[in-house]
Amino acid sequence: MHELAVTESILGIVIKHAAKNQVKKVLSISLKIGELTDLVDEWVQHYFNYLSKDTIAEGAILKIERSPVVFQCTDCNKAFPVFLKESGKIICFHCNSTRVTLVSGREFFIKHIEVV
Amino acid sequence: MMADIRLIEIREDILSDNKNLADEIREVLRSHHVFLLNLMASPGGGKTSLIVHTVRELKNVFRIGVIEGDIDSVIDAERVSREGVPAVQLKTGGFCHLDASMIDMALKEMDLGNLDLIMIENIGNLVCPAEFDTGAIKNVMILSVPEGDDKPLKYPLMFSVCDVLLVNKIDYLNVADFDMNALKDRVFNLNPKIKIFEVSCKTGEGIQMWVRWLTEEMNVYAKEDPAG
């Protein structure tokens, strides 16, 4: 639901880096977004197309890499992926402990851009 | 020409501007000894009622202000103002969350030198507000009994980022199909550090426990103060 705000931030960061690097045009933007963030990829691209009109990033393609939700067990220290919406409870794959902490799934960053 | 294509490494957090501004807000509030609390919930979860209860319990102890973010109505701000505390209404239109820049704007309209506690009533939504740091010292959410005990599975991020969960409307427990133990299991599973208080803004049950927690946290914050 907050795709518009996120997209504005993406465009701002991309334009800032493009200006520093004497870029003529931004062709693509590679993003890493964790599964825990409720963003719909299509809407991010849709808003981006709208916001980036008449900028050097107009027409750029967003390549979104989703990083899985990963928890780490406090008891055995091993990490394991979790499909939150399908699992009723988060239990360590290795030792069945329920003492766990989130280690990834909240990523939200721009990896790199392809430019000319 | 393909050869002209370059790759520029960025590795920058998309929400870094918001995070930086939130950190600045925390510094400003720290210098004024003001504790900022961010309250989040679904529409109808009981945010305004909880704020009103908290103000009634604490207004003789702390100087309190409220930032109302709930969508473009002044009803909530009026309810809060009736309690005799200053309330700033943010005009958020159809926005789905508050971010640090909106809180920064609201704080500029408040007399920080004459406040100890500011409560933010965030926009009624369990998804977007979880993503945006407001500059608050503590994040608190309300889940009301009629919403169901399965919500941690649907909104895991919200339950992960909060310091406190207030389970409101416990006066509905005997008519609702709500399993408190199952809820707590699910919440602690996602966030072992979270504090859970069971409250009813209707009967006032449990409000004392919540207010005690808040008072203790504010005292800890005041003692951490480098300026004394």
Characteristic terms for this protein:
heterodimer; A: 116 residues; alpha+beta; three-stranded mixed beta sheet; three-stranded antiparallel beta sheet; 2 helices; elongated; B: 228 residues; alpha/beta; seven-stranded parallel beta sheet; 8 strands; globular
Question: Could you give a short description of this structure?
Answer:
The complex is a heterodimer of chains A (116) and B (228). With 116 residues, chain A is of the alpha+beta class.
Strand content of the residues of chain B, in percent? Answer: 15-25%
Query: What would the average pLDDT of chain B be, to the nearest integer?
Result: 92
| Span between termini of chain A | 32 Å
Kindly state the number of beta strands of chain B.
8
Overall average residue pLDDT of chain A? 92
Poorly predicted runs of chain B are none
The percentage helix of chain A is 25-40%
- Rounded to an integer, what's the Rg of chain B over CA atoms? 19 Å
Q: How far is the first residue's CA from the last residue's CA of chain B?
A: 63 Å
The total of helices of chain B stands at 8
Helical/strand content category of chain B: alpha/beta
Question: Could you characterize the architecture of this molecule?
Answer:
The complex is a heterodimer of chains A (116) and B (228). By secondary structure, chain A is an alpha+beta fold. Chain A has helices spanning 3-20, 41-51; strands spanning 26-34, 61-67, 70-73, 79-81, 100-104, 108-115. In chain A, the strands form two sheets. Chain A has a three-stranded mixed beta sheet, with helices on one face. Chain A is elongated. With 228 residues, chain B is of the alpha/beta class. A seven-stranded parallel beta sheet of chain B has the order 4-3-5-2-6-7-8, sandwiched between helices. In chain B, β7, α7 and β8 (195-198) form a beta-alpha-beta unit. In chain B, α1 packs parallel to α4. Chain B is globular. The relative contact order of chain B is 0.17. The mean pLDDT of chain B is 92. β6 (108-115) of chain A pairs antiparallel with β1 of chain B, so a sheet runs across the interface.
